Amino acid sequence: MPELTYIDDQGNEKPLEPKKGFGFKFFFGFLILSLIFGGVGGFLVGYFLPTKESKQGAVESITGGKTEKVTVEESSAVIDTAKKVSPSVVSILTTANVMDFFGDVAQQKGGGSGFVITSDGLILTNKHVVDGATDLTVITRDGKNYKAQVKGTDPLNDLAIISVDAKNLSVVDLGDSDKLEIGQHVIAIGNALGQFQNTVTTGVISAKGRTFTAEGERLENMLQTDAAINPGNSGGPLVNIKGQVIGINSAIAVGAENIGFAIPINTAKYAIESYQKNGKIIRPYIGIRYVPITKETASVNNLPVDYGVLVHSGSSYDQPAVVSGSPAQKAGLKDGDIITAINDQKINDDKTLNSILLQYHPNDTIELTVSRNGKETKMKLTLGEQK
After folding, report:
1. Is 25 helix (H, G, I), strand (E, B) or coil?
2. Which of 51, 170, 172, 196 falls 20 to 30 Å from 34 in CA-CA distance?
3. How confident is the model at residue 215 (pLDDT cuts 50, 70, 90)?
4. What percent of the chain lies above the pLDDT cut of 70?
5. Which residue, 171, 67, 85, 77, is CA-closest to 124?
6. Which residues are the active-site residues?
7. Strand 196-214 with 185-192, pairing
8. Cα angle vertex 285, ends 281, 286, to 5°?
9. What does the CA dihedral 136, 246, 356, 258 come to, rounded to 10 degrees?
10. pTM of the full predicted structure?
11. Is the Cβ–Cβ distance between 291 and 297 less than 8 Å?
């Protein structure tokens, strides 16, 4: 390659030399230094940065050697529960003959919910869903329609068992309502408003042991929940986060928000077992009208105890407190007596009279602890059968 020259301002020819400055040599040197310092820095970081194992060791040193992984996946649990239970929830369509103002008979349509308790077609629902129905149709979640028949109704509770001619139906798991805690998460599933099949709502157990009257029927030991329950939900399941049925949705408080009631599943278990054994639902019978005693009623009425039940006709003054010819009359119970215990089981908010009676059957003999005129006495009573 020829040598490059240039002419200076004096007209002399001279060779061209590169200018001293930040050229290639500087760049090359800078690159070498960067590599050196980068390698040293990487070594130092790798040496001093904790490994996964050393991090775990640090955590264990803080927690005393215990490592816990807490994952809250409530929404996932609700999804899993709905998937598990929904195939067993059915919609119930009813037709009943009613008489209008002019005496003409017309057909009235209604709807409710239920859930499958045996794979061959037994379904549990509310008694008020099927009362007076001349035609029952059950619709499963997959859209299949079945004609249904009422097989048994509970004389003491708002429960009914109906059946369809089907095989291999998906069956619910029954839980233990006695183990429920206030504040526990629950899920309601049902045919909301009679047209929104398998609607899922969530809430908690707001209270236990509630007593109220719905459509003239006294319901005791009810579960209260804030899970949305609407007309059409009646008879559907109230389930826990494990997908176990712990209640049967039955009623709502009119004029209030988020106050619904469900029959505890343990109450229904007795009805199911009774039907399977006897072909009908049989309940033990005492034959009294009574008022549950609380601290407030005891104080206002100057009663000697603040628990138990007062044998009294209540607002039904035209009906006797002790039914004529009943086991109660034969045992010697009188209007004004206070029954405080059955077989030494104290009657209170946690253990109501009816819930204790569920442990026994017609013809069983029980011992009543009775307070009469301030004196305690014991009475033997042989249970009858509720008609």
Report:
1. helix
2. 51
3. low
4. 78
5. 171
6. 128, 158, 234
7. antiparallel
8. 170
9. -90
10. 0.73
11. yes
